[in-house]
Design a protein that fits this description.
325 residues; Enolase-like, domain 1; 4-stranded antiparallel beta sheet; oxidoreductase activity
Length: 325
C-alpha cells in the first residue's frame, strides 16, 4: 500500500470541500481497502465519510429513497424493502457474506470495481487499470467474464447484484458536488468499456454519490432475483436475473428484466420484455420470449455457455414469479 493522507468529514459540505481529483471517499471500505493493498488503486488522499447523515431508508409518493451509507444488511432486512421491492432484498442477500453485508454501504456496492482477476493483478495487462496496456482476459482464462457489452479493450463483468435489481426497476442515483446535485438513471450512469474501459461511470472527480431512488412501482411486490454461481456462499454470479411482473390474471401486463454476470454493466433486457407483454405467463411463452435474449453476445474461449445459461435463468425467474419454479 502506498502512502496517503487521511481525514474524516462530519458533514456532506465538509466532504465535498475536502475532495479532489486524486482523493477517494471511504465508507465501509470493503472494496477500496482491498484495492489499495493491491496497489490497484492508490489515491493520494482518503476521506472518511462513514459518519455522514446518509443512512435513511424511506418511502413516499416519489418512491423508495436509500442513503448511500445505509448498510447492505439494514436495507435487505428493512420492512419497506422486503414488502415493496423484494428483488432488492434478495439481491442484497445473495451478495458477499453476512459479515461484509454488515459493513458495506449501498453507495459502495453500486460503485464497486470489477472482480476480474487480471484487473486485481498488477503483474498482468489490464486496460481498466492501466489504459493502453492490453486485456489479458481476452486470451487468458475468461470463464467468469462478460459476453455482452464487451470490446477489444475489456471483457470484465460488473460485479454488483444490487445494481442489477436497481437497473431492472429504473432506479436513479443522486450525485452531489460543490455546485449542487443531479440525478442520473443507473442504467445510464454505467458506461460500456469501448476503448476507454478505465472510465466506468459518470461520476465526476470529487463528486459524492449521496443516495439511490427507486421509482414507485406497485407491482414490484411480485419480483425476484435469481443468481447462478459455482458455489452458494460468497461467490459472484455466472449469470443472474432480476425480474418483476405485473400479472393480470394469467397475462403479463408489464415486466422488468435485467441480467448480471454476463455484461460489462448491469444488462437490461428490453427485447425480452417486449416479447412478454400481453402474453400469458406460461413456460412455452417464456421460453419463446427468451430466444433472442443474448443475440448480441460475443462469447470467449471459456464462457460460451453463458448465453444459454442466461436464457435458462430468465425462464427460472419468471416461472418462479408464476408460482411454477
Amino acid at each position: 500500500m502506498r502512502p496517503f493522507t487521511y481525514a474524516s468529514a462530519s458533514t456532506v459540505e465538509e466532504a465535498l470541500a475536502g475532495a479532489g481529483a486524486d482523493s477517494a471517499y471511504l465508507a465501509g471500505g470493503t472494496t477500496l481497502v482491498d484495492l489499495m493493498k493491491l496497489e490497484v488503486m492508490s489515491p493520494a488522499a482518503v476521506l472518511n465519510i462513514d459518519t455522514l447523515p446518509l443512512r435513511d431508508i424511506r418511502h413516499d409518493h416519489t418512491g423508495l429513497h436509500v442513503g448511500a451509507l445505509a448498510r447492505m444488511s439494514d436495507v435487505a432486512a428493512h420492512r419497506l424493502v422486503t414488502a415493496r421491492y423484494p428483488v432488492i432484498s434478495q439481491a442484497l442477500l445473495h451478495s458477499a457474506s453476512p459479515q461484509l453485508r454488515n459493513m458495506a454501504s449501498i453507495g459502495g456496492n453500486v460503485l464497486q470495481r470489477t472482480r476480474c482477476g487480471y484487473f486485481r493483478d498488477p503483474a498482468t495487462a489490464c486496460n481498466k487499470r492501466t489504459p493502453g496496456s492490453g486485456c489479458a482476459a481476452i486470451t487468458g482464462y475468461n470463464r467468469a467474464h462478460a459476453v455482452l457489452g464487451t470490446s477489444e479493450s475489456c471483457v470484465a463483468t460488473h460485479p454488483s447484484d444490487l445494481a442489477v435489481a436497481l437497473v431492472a426497476l429504473d432506479a436513479s442515483v443522486l450525485l452531489r458536488d460543490r455546485a449542487g446535485e443531479r440525478a442520473v438513471r443507473l442504467a445510464d450512469f454505467y458506461l460500456l468499456p469501448g476503448d476507454t474501459p478505465h472510465l466506468e461511470n459518470r461520476l465526476r472527480p470529487g463528486e459524492l454519490l449521496a443516495g439511490v431512488t427507486v421509482p414507485p412501482l406497485s407491482w414490484a411486490r411480485r419480483s425476484t432475483y435469481v443468481k447462478v454461481r459455482d458455489r452458494r456462499p460468497y461467490e459472484f454470479a455466472l449469470t443472474s436475473v432480476a425480474a418483476a411482473v405485473d400479472l393480470r390474471g394469467d397475462t403479463i401486463a408489464d415486466v422488468r428484466l435485467a441480467a448480471g454476470g454476463v455484461g460489462t454493466k448491469p444488462w437490461r433486457l428490453p427485447a425480452v420484455e417486449d416479447a412478454l407483454r400481453s402474453r400469458p405467463l406460461r413456460a412455452d411463452t417464456v421460453k419463446a420470449a427468451v430466444t433472442h435474449a443474448a443475440d448480441d453476445a460475443t462469447p470467449l474461449s471459456h464462457n460460451g455457455f453463458k448465453p444459454e445459461l442466461l436464457r435458462r435463468t430468465i425462464v427460472r425467474a419468471l416461472l418462479t414469479l408464476a408460482g411454477r419454479p
